[in-house]
Amino acid sequence: MRCEKGLTLIEVLISITILGIIMTSFLSFFNQAYSYTKTNEDKTVGINVARNVLYYFEQQDFKKIKENYFSHETIMEKEMNIDNCHDTSINGETVFDDPAVCESFFDTKVNEVDYTSNVTFTRDILDSENPDQDKPHLQDQLIGVEITVQWGNHSADVRGLIKK
Fold this sequence. Notes:
The chain is α+β, with helices and mostly antiparallel strands. It is about 45% helix and about 25% strand.
């Protein structure tokens, strides 16, 4: 009754070790994919925050912004921060309809992450078909808006226009 068709303990241990090494290498791929997905998720949230800020500023009154920040022809760029939400125009009105709403766009918290926005208005508008040639009449009709959102050590940029 001697049957030698089974596996020895050493053969079982070697096969388990080889299987463990193979599974460990596969699991590292999942860890790397999770890290990549998490980074892209954070960047997507940052871009969406920037788009919301851009949309808010696109809805603002072109005339008020132009009169208050670009009254002199030599001024081509104006950087904005949370303090500018309380700016008043020449006739005593606030430039932005609701300063509290404006402030909430500069400092936003999503999923327990703080997002800080920097806004730059610019009158330096170029024709996309002919970028080497300035189009002064566009400066009378459009104000460029560039939003930079920062969170942690990451950032995202979005650009748009305020139309007359």
